[in-house]
Amino acid sequence: MDQLGRFIQSDAKGVLEKLRLYLIKKLLPHLEDRRKYHQEFASSTSFHGVRNIVQTQSKTRKVLWLLVVAGCLATVIWQICSRFIYYFSWPTTTTVVVQYVENVKFPAVTFCNLNRFQAHAVSNLKIIFLVWNIVTGVVQKFAMEDKYSQELNDFLLGNQNFSIKEFTRKNGFYLNSSTLLECEFFGKPCYPQDFEHVFTEYGNCFTFNHNDLPARRVSLSGRGLHLLFDVQQEQFTDEPALGYTDAGITFVIHSPKELPRFDGLGLLTPVGMHAQVAIRQLKSIIQEYPWGECKPEIKLQYHKIYSINGCLQECKARYIQDWCGCLPFILPGNGTECDLLKFYNCVYPAVYDIEIKGLCTVGTHNSTCPAPCEETDYPTTVTYSSFGGERAIKYFSAKLKKSPEYVRQNLVCIDIKYHDLSYKITQQQKALTISELLADVGGQLGLFCGASMITIIELLEYIFTNFCWMCIFLLLKAPEMPQWNNPSQNQPTHKEKKKGIQEC
Fold first, then answer.
1. Which of 140, 242, 253, 118 is nearest to 200 (CA)?
2. What is the pLDDT of residue 138?
3. What angle is formed at CA 64 by the lines to CA 60 and CA 68, rounded to 5 degrees?
4. Which of 121, 196, 238, 367 is buried most, with the most CB atoms less than 10 Å from its CB?
């Protein structure tokens, strides 16, 4: 074993010695060569000012140029750091562009009667108004007073198979030739079948241009959709005690790809009035995070495009379906429809729980429903006038075979048209892009140091070369390998022990 250990030790020493000789002869230049390399680099580098420090013979000029180069280098570092700090603050700018076109798409318009139910159907069933408010509470906040609780409980226990959805569809507001007296789009007649039925907090509502037909474009400002409604106050009614005290038509203008959202955002036209609605198209484009608040990877399951309203509805639908095991018919999704008991005992409390705990939040990038990356809005300007002069009142009175007072108390006229054939684009843009950042850094280097990408490569090559020489130098100065392979050599032999005893 001792001989094997000595053989391994001598072999390792030989390899290490050969390696040292190779490094000295091949890779590590002589001291003079290294000094010459440093001198040549300082004299030939494209980094301005270094050559003047090295080549000048005057000490004063050396000090002067050293100060100039150090000052310029400090300024460059400060400027580059400030540009990087500005870039990582994710700054944005907003541009507004008005684009004029030959024709523009007409939006979707959803109309509802402020009196939601037929009077004969709810004359002995006043609780229906409260039930509908509870059902639609998933899309509109509604606070129920305690005085209705007992009456509501009695109704729910006695009518467990009652379907408020079917009741509203059959006994709510309807759209036919008796309620829609006139309909024209860009001079061409339209009919009740051109409207799509949709449930909202106002019961049965009807959407025009719900399928975004390509033919429904406007090529002339000042013309659009003309409608004349008969709200039939004698036929339809509502409950003033719950806050429904008006008579007329409410409507909301929205994108054909989005669901209508009232919730205080609808426009109201009272009876006996003529509303002139001028609309504009506004497209908003928001940058993705971290510059903006949108997240383009978010997609909705039951909506064509992403919108905050659609996202909120799907979020509520998921939580309600998990908690209650059913899905309200007014929310999107596929699931078992909730009955009235589930609405009252589970869905209605769950909605308030969602709002209190903030389970469906909106706005910022880390919320459940962040801002959309692209959104189309329709800002409106509405002017009102009394509907019909004396001759018009007589004309409609004779046409409908109704009294002039009936015409004043029931007819609503609405005209919706584009203000002009243009749309406005509000776009959020990056204030500093990567290419602009590189251009800023390159400009600062060139202005203060005369440096370019070639200069940076030269510096990197110089630093790498010196680093390699330093590693070789440290390797040559390393101590010999520890004698771990032969443990017996570290202990004294028998003769050495005897010699030590004799010396003592």
1. 140
2. 62
3. 170
4. 238
Tokens matching residue 42: 């300082």
Radius of gyration of the chain (CA): 42
Cβ-based neighbour number of residue 248 at 10 Å: 21
- The one-letter amino acid code at 224 reads G
Say if CB 112 and CB 205 are below 8 A apart.
yes
* Angle (nearest 5°) at CA 249 between 245 and 252: 115
Tell the residue number behind the tokens 């005290």, with chain if given.
245
Report the candidate in 302, 256, 293 with the shortest Cα–Cα distance to residue 369: 293
The answer to whether the beta carbons of residues 115 and 203 sit under 8 Å apart is no
pLDDT value at 13 more than 80: no
How far, in Å, CA of 499 to CA of 504, rounded?
9
411-430 and 273-285 strand pairing: parallel
Nearest CA to 325 out of 313, 311, 342 is that of 342
Q: What angle (nearest 5°) sits at the alpha carbon of residue 139, between those of residues 138 and 140?
A: 100
Alpha carbon distance 59, 443 (integer Å): 31
**Euclidean distance between CA atoms 290 and 305, whole angstroms:** 22
d(CA 386, CA 39): 94
290 preceded by a cis bond (ω within 30 of 0): yes
DSSP state of 451: -
> Cα–chain-centroid distance for residue 110?
26
Q: For residue range 73-129, what is the model confidence (pLDDT) as tens digits? A: 899 999 999 999 999 999 999 999 998 888 888 899 999 999 888 888 887 677 787
Cα-based distances in Å from 153 to 134, 165, 340, 477:
13, 19, 10, 93
Please give the biggest Cα pair distance in the chain.
146
- The better pLDDT of the pair 11, 65 is held by 65
Instruction: Give the neighbor-by-neighbor strand order of the sheet with 195-200.
Output: 195-200, 203-208, 108-113, 248-254, 267-270
Number of alpha helices (DSSP H) and beta strands (DSSP E) in the chain: 16, 19
The secondary structure of the chain in percent helix, strand, coil, rounded to multiples of 5, reads 45, 25, 35
> Could you give the CA distance from residue 277 to residue 111 in angstroms, rounded to a whole number?
14
Q: What is the pLDDT of residue 399?
A: 86
φ/ψ (deg, to 5) at 277: -110, 115
Q: Whole-angstrom Cα distance, residue 298 to residue 316?
A: 16
